[in-house]
Specification:
mainly alpha, single chain
């Protein structure tokens, strides 16, 4: 086997140690310059309107007025870009929509204080409300959940008062954890263990901040919902693993701003495949409420039967309050379309309002008031909207019906006069009713079609404010005003001529519909489309004429006839009596003749008008010829002619 010798070439020859160090330094500098060149090249290719942490830091550090204006202008362009990526005008669907990226960038823009923060929150609230639910959203939902928890635990509790942005961020947390909880019920969050560890670490600090919101049931409901759903999502984690993960990590994370979570080592899968089999497991109460919504949507005739089973109301009070809250949202969505469901919902509301044995039922009673307010705004018929406002059987026109309260009656509920309502909890119901009525007054402002509904709500609020002695209930109107009178919906053009009802603040009214849609797809078999069967027309009974009846009717006419004449006349009548086909052909022929007669009259009238027009045109031509003839004669004889001089 031959041996190949590879020659060694000394390109630089023998150099000293000093020159060797200088050469290494030169090579390092060249490599650094090359890296900077390619980095600058990548930066040039990057979209200038892409939201980055560097932009957020520059926005916060801007001090000069000109620099602040430039940063605000750039942030506004970024918001406009994210509106399109979030699909605000297309209900979160379309080829141009990228919800995970839009939500991530909007979460970064929330850190920019002022108008940018308010508009970013509004866009997030609207998008999380009406966007479709998909497993690909799980990573960004975990990121939003951790960011919201960090903000509440570090910044919100340091403020001496309740701020509008604080209320919106907690509402944003409610929507975020609701989506995660629905995906958890479908069994799609099982593989996100490390994200659960991080979320569990942030959740531990939230119960301590719960006491700050006891005077505001709307905010407290969102905080408790976040705590309970977060515990349910992270329940499968082992306590030892969670403690091992939290050691030495949580303190370091709390020192960083929540925007740095984008660069952390969370090894969560970026894409989730939909499961082959449905692993959704919901409670019986939630399943019944979901069936009610399906029966109403598909117009199934078994609605009364399912509502009778639903009237076993003790299950709703004794079940897990998270399931009961979701069930109320589903019933509220069905009640917007069907007044029978609204009647069943108000009957359930009587139980919730009159039983305050636990904090969970307090939250459900407040949520029930909010659902009634939502039905007042978005009910499919005016009858449904009116019933949600004044209840059933509360007027003199219907004294025999069962009285069920609406928002106006719930606003006046008093613990001393209502059995089962304790002194410390009755204000929850009045708070919810006042908050919902203020929302109705604000959104329906300027809508002439809903002017009567708004006036009734406004008059009730004004009367209650003059009589209410609890400062916590009076604060409900102030909190609603502060929340609803904030910035208008950012996707509405301020220059366009829109009514004030369209340019209202952020409201959440697609929530129950989204929950019902995704749960019906994940947890129940598909529903066959309702096909209306052809109905057979009722057959008319054939009455045979009695000869005695015929003789009785014409008895007076045949009195002077002989017996032979009477027999011959009866036979002629029987033979001349037309059958069904003959009568149908006769009626059809008569209709054709009438139609032909009408068309003929129309045609004759049209021809008459044409003749008149032709006659007028002919007379006009003759007159013009006559005038032309007279003109020529005058020119020929150089004098004016009178009509008598002109020969015929």
């Amino acid at each position: 086997m031959p041996i190949f010798k590879i020659p060694i070439v000394h390109r630089f020859g023998i150099i000293s140690h000093t020159e060797h160090l200088l050469l290494e330094e030169s090579l390092v500098k060249t490599a650094e310059d090359t890296r900077k060149f390619y980095n600058s090249k990548d930066a040039a290719k990057r979209n200038p309107f892409e939201v980055t942490e560097q932009f957020v830091q520059e926005f916060k550090c801007a001090k000069e007025q000109k620099e602040k204006e430039q940063m605000i202008e750039m942030a506004q362009k970024m918001l406009t870009r994210n509106k399109r990526k979030a699909g605000l005008n297309t209900m979160g669907s379309g080829n141009h929509v990228n919800l995970p990226l839009a939500w991530t960038e909007l979460a970064l823009l929330v850190q920019c204080k002022g108008k940018i923060q308010a508009e970013a929150l509004d866009i997030l609230l609207i998008s999380l409300d009406h966007a479709p639910l998909h497993p690909d959203q799980i990573p960004v939902l975990f990121f939003l959940a951790e960011s919201i928890l960090y903000w509440i635990c570090t910044d919100a509790v340091k403020q001496p008062y309740l701020y509008t942005c604080e209320v919106k961020i907690i509402k944003l947390g409610f929507l975020t954890f609701l989506r995660l909880f629905i995906l958890h019920l479908a069994g799609l969050v099982q593989t996100f263990k490390e994200c659960k560890y991080r979320l569990h670490a942030y959740l531990e600090g939230l119960p301590e901040r719960e006491a700050c919101y006891r005077s505001y049931p709307n905010v407290l409901l969102g905080v408790r919902f976040i705590i309970r759903t977060g515990e349910a999502i992270c329940y499968s984690l082992r306590s030892s693993e969670a403690c091992c993960y939290r050691t030495g990590v949580l303190d370091e994370e709390l020192k960083k701003k929540f925007c740095s979570q984008l660069n952390t080592d969370c090894r969560c899968p970026q894409r989730v495949d939909e499961p082959q089999q449905k692993a959704c497991n919901i409670s019986p109460v939630l399943r019944e409420c979901l069936l009610v919504w399906i029966y109403v949507k598909h117009k199934i005739q078994l609605l009364d039967d399912i509502l009778k089973h639903l009237l076993l109301r003790e299950q709703l009070c004794n079940t897990n309050w998270i399931d009961a809250a979701l069930g109320l949202l589903l019933l509220g969505e069905a009640a917007k379309m069907n007044i029978t469901c609204l009647k069943a919902l108000t009957e359930l509301g009587i139980i919730l309002v009159s039983h305050f044995s636990s904090h969970n039922l307090k939250q459900l009673s407040y949520l029930y008031c909010c659902i009634l307010g939502d039905i007042c705004l978005y009910g499919s018929t005016s009858e449904i909207q009116k019933a949600a406002l004044i209840g059933f059987g509360n007027s003199s026109k219907s004294p025999n019906r069962t009285n069920t309260p609406g928002l106006l009656q719930l606003l006046q509920i008093q613990p001393a006069t209502t059995p089962g309502v304790d002194q410390d909890s009755g204000w929850w119901v009045r708070y919810g009713a006042a908050y919902s009525l203020e929302k109705v007054c604000h959104i329906l402002y300027g809508d002439k079609n809903q002017e009567g509904l708004r006036n009734a709500a406004w008059n009730a609020l004004q009367k209650q404010q003059s009589l209410e002695q609890d400062a916590r209930v009076l604060a409900a109107v102030k909190v609603a005003e502060a929340e609803l009178n904030g910035p208008i919906n950012p996707f509405i053009n301020a220059s366009s001529k829109t009514t004030s009802s369209l340019r209202s603040s952020v409201t959440i009214h697609f929530l129950g519909w989204r929950i019902a849609s995704i749960l019906s797809q994940l947890c129940l078999p598909p529903v066959a489309p309702s096909i209306a069967l052809p109905r057979m027309l009722p057959q008319r009974p054939i009455h045979s004429r009695s000869p005695f009846q015929k003789q009785w009717k014409v008895g007076k006419k045949m009195a002077d006839l002989s017996l032979r004449q009477e027999i011959m006349l009866a036979q002629a009548d029987r033979e001349s009596l037309p059958d069904f086909n003959t009568r149908a052909n006769f009626n059809l022929r008569r209709m054709v003749e009438d139609q032909w007669r009408k068309e003929l009259q129309t045609k004759l009238g049209y021809e008459e008008k044409e003749r008149e027009l032709q006659l007028q045109e002919k007379q006009k031509l003759e007159t013009e010829d006559f005038i032309e003839l007279m003109t020529r004669k005058e020119e020929k004889f150089h004098k004016k002619s009178t009509p008598c001089e002109i020969p015929p």
